[in-house]
Amino acid sequence: MKYSKYKIISEINVTSLVDVTMVLLIIFMITAPLLRSGIDVELPRSTANDLKQYDGIVITVTRDGTIKLNDETATFDNFEAMLLKMYTFSARKEVLLQADKEVPYGKVIQVMDKIKKAGVNNLGLIVQPDIEK
C-alpha cells in the first residue's frame, strides 16, 4: 500500500462561503435604497386643531393646471403681476397655497417660486384636515 504524504482535511473551508456572503450583502446594500423610490406617496393630512378661515390671499392650483387668486383666474405668465398687485393692497399679508393632489409636484414648485419672486415671505400650505377617530 502506498501512503501519501498528504493528510485528508475534514474541515469545512469557509473562505468561499464568506466571500459569497459579502458579495450578497453588498448587492443588497446597493439595491435597497433604489427600491424605496418607486413607492406611491399620498399627501399627509393634518390633525391640527387651529385651522381657521383666513382673510389673506388664497392661491389655488386646480387639477387641470388653472391658477386662481381668491377666485380670480390667472395664467402662469400674468400670475406674478396679479399676486403682486393683490399683495400690496391686501391688509393681511398671509398667502396660502392649495393644490389638487393630482397636480404634478414640479408645477406646485413653479408656482411657489413665482410667489417668492413676488416678495411674499409668509407662505402657508393648505392641507385637508384629518378627522380623529
CATH architecture descriptor name of the domain at 57-125: 2-Layer Sandwich
Mean pLDDT metric: 78
Q: In terms of per-residue confidence, which ranges show pLDDT below 50 for 5 or more consecutive residues?
A: 37-44
Mass-distribution shape = rod-shaped
The order of strands across the largest sheet is: 3-2-1-4-5
- Residues in β-strands, percent: 5-15%
In DSSP terms (H or I, runs of 4 or more residues), the helix count works out at 3
Structural class: alpha/beta
Could you say what the CATH topology of the domain at 57-125 is called?
Answer: Nucleotidyltransferase, domain 5
What is the name of the CATH class of the domain at 57-125?
Alpha Beta
Could you explain the architecture of this structure?
The protein is built from three helices and five strands. The chain is α/β, with parallel strands linked by helices and 133 residues long. The chain has a domain at 57-125: 2-Layer Sandwich (Nucleotidyltransferase, domain 5), CATH 3.30.420. It has a five-stranded mixed beta sheet, covered by helices on one side. Strand 1 and strand 2 form a beta hairpin.
Topology, element by element:
Blueprint: H1 15-36, E1 57-61, E2 67-69, E3 72-74, H2 79-89, E4 95-99, H3 105-117, E5 123-125
Parallel strand pairs: 1-4, 4-5
Antiparallel strand pairs: 1-2, 2-3
Descriptive terms for the model:
single chain; 133 residues; alpha/beta; Nucleotidyltransferase, domain 5; 5-stranded mixed sheet; 3 helices
In brief:
The protein contains three helices and five strands, in the order αβββαβαβ. It is of the alpha/beta class.
